[in-house]
Design goal:
Blueprint lengths: L1 H16 L12 H4 L12 E2 L5 E5 L4 E4 L2 E2 L7 E6 L6 E5 L2 E2 L6 E4 L2 E4 L8 E7 L5 E17 L4 E5 L4 E10 L3 E6 L11 E2 L2 E4 L8 E8 L6 E17 L3 E3 L6 E10 L3 E6 L2 E2 L4 E3 L21 E6 L2 E6 L8 E9 L2 E10 L6 E2 L11 E8 L6 E8 L18 E6 L6 E3 L2 E8 L7 E10 L2 E2 L6 E4 L3 H9 L3 H21 L1
């Protein structure tokens, strides 16, 4: 009997030395965990738990059941194969805990994982290393909230007209859905958001500037957001608040240019093509190129102040003199180009604006009314007018053609003007006009500095109701007699009826 036990011990030792269920890494445990069988026959253990797939969220706990019958003296081995394909790891061998992770605990044949982490995902084996092996397999999927990061610089400077692709990379379980939005409002496409891995902006301009948000969401925890800013670089763009500024001596005026560009343009001012003398400066720089060649412009000029707030560049001229009149140019320059705009500062009146009704109320006269702007009193006006269409048929069957321009110039009594600040309202009656005739007129006004430009051409007509009667009376005698006879017959008929 002693000899039989010795032979059985040798056989079991050889089986452990050639393990087939565990990997090679577990041979170190062979001397401690081989099975001793009493007698020649034994019934292997069987698992009563069924194979399961567990899905848990990060932070939750999960119990792995390895319920078994007929355990006897066999040692239950529990191991893990990570989901990412890493090396398998022995967690428990019988009652001994082989992992140092305190989150793993074993109660009987059940393993509890507390505070689950993404790295806990994988396949878990409950097994007995027998021939054939007795194995129960479970899987654990650990879901966790997404993370996201921008693939590229958080702030990108793109020249106008070029295209740019924004991309972000998200991680999470389940796989997150990526949506794009714009912090300042709708996307350039007009949509509030778009679902895509990347966002492409074609032919960018400054209207697509802003902060673009890449939001990753998988329904677990809070959505993750990555922000990317797009800054579009472009040459300067200039507009003026007023192309013509009318003023006078002693006044204070502001010449304003609205300048946009990126990088922020440098702005300089010139007058009649020459650099402006040194000015008081506020929040900006003035360029003084060619000042040494223009000695008359080198003196410090305290009555001009160049300032800017955001895009608004202002040249303020204090105590205007006649020498200040001229063409002012604001010039903006950055690394992408240069642009300019001109503001004319003048003492001349504004071209008149005709305000009278185009339909005259008199047959041979018409009163023109107009308004103008001038810092100084209007001293004279000039009216040009002429017929604009064919005249009426004459009794000799000829037609009078439209006439040439006629002019009327008249001095103005400043005390007789209707003034409101710099606005002037004026009127003049044209006489000896033809009945029911269309005319065109232009008006200019003058102050101490000279004549304004001509007004836009204004069309009007004399009273047309009288023309119908006149055209009837100018018919030949035969027509008149026929008409009179017909009228007489009509009246007689009416009298009979009465």
């Amino acid at each position: 009997m002693t000899m039989e036990k010795a032979l059985l011990g040798i056989v079991l030792t050889l089986m452990v030395l050639a393990p087939q269920g565990l990997s090679k890494g577990y041979v170190d445990y062979e001397e401690d965990y081989y099975y001793e069988a009493e007698g020649g026959d034994y019934e292997p253990p069987t698992f009563t738990a069924r194979q399961q797939a567990f899905t848990v969220e990060v932070g939750q706990s999960v119990i792995i059941p390895c319920d078994v019958d007929n355990l006897g003296t066999f040692k239950l081995l529990i191991k893990k194969v990570p989901a990412n394909g890493g090396a398998e790891k022995l967690l428990f061998a019988g009652r001994e805990k082989m992992t140092r992770d305190r989150r793993f605990s074993k109660d009987g044949s059940r393993v509890t994982i507390s505070n689950a982490r993404p790295k806990d995902a994988g396949t878990y084996y409950c097994m007995f290393d027998l021939q054939p092996p007795v194995v129960l397999r479970h899987t654990i999927d650990v879901q966790y909230a997404p993370t996201v990061r921008a693939m590229g610089r958080p702030e990108q400077h793109i020249p106008r007209g070029q295209s740019v692709s924004l991309e972000c990379q998200a991680e999470g379980n389940p796989e997150p859905i990526i949506r794009w939005s714009r912090q300042e409002g709708p996307l350039p496409s007009g949509k509030r958001s778009e679902e895509a891995q990347s966002l492409t902006l074609e032919g960018v301009d400054r209207h697509v500037e802003g902060t673009y948000l890449c939001t990753a969401d998988n329904g677990i925890g809070e959505a993750a957001v990555a922000a990317m800013s797009i800054i579009v670089e472009y040459p300067p763009e200039i507009t003026t608040e007023k192309a013509i500024v009318r003023t006078g001596e002693g006044d204070q005026v502001e010449l304003v240019c609205l300048v946009r560009g990126r990088p922020v343009p440098e702005v300089v001012w010139t007058r009649d093509g020459l650099p402006i003398p040194d000015t008081d400066m506020m929040d900006t720089k003035l360029h003084h190129q060619q000042q040494q060649q223009q000695s008359q412009h080198q003196d410090y000029n305290p009555h001009m102040v160049h300032s800017h707030t955001a895009h608004r560049h202002t040249l303020t001229i204090k105590h205007v003199t006649e020498k200040d009149f001229g063409a002012y140019m604001c010039i903006a320059k950055n690394s992408h180009g240069q642009q300019d705009a001109t503001i004319q500062m003048t003492g001349l009146p504004k071209p008149p604006h005709l305000t009278s009704s185009p339909n005259g109320g008199e047959s041979d006269t018409y009163t023109l009314t107009w308004e103008t702007e001038s810092y100084y009193p209007i001293t004279e006006f000039l009216i040009k007018y002429r017929k604009t269409q064919l005249g009426v048929w004459q009794t000799n069957h000829t037609m009078v053609m439209g006439g040439s321009w006629q002019s009327i110039s008249e001095a103005v009594d400043p005390d007789a003007e209707l003034n409101e600040d710099t606005r002037h309202s004026m009127a003049h009656t044209l006489k000896d006009l033809e009945v029911a005739t269309d005319y065109a007129a232009q008006v200019r006004v003058r102050n101490k500095y000279g004549w304004s430009s001509e007004s836009e051409t204004f069309t009007f007509s004399t009273k047309k109701a009288l023309a119908v009667l006149q055209s009837t009376s100018t018919g030949n005698a035969a027509r008149g007699q026929v008409a009179l006879a017909a009228l007489t017959l009509l009246l007689s008929a009416l009298a009979t009826l009465v």
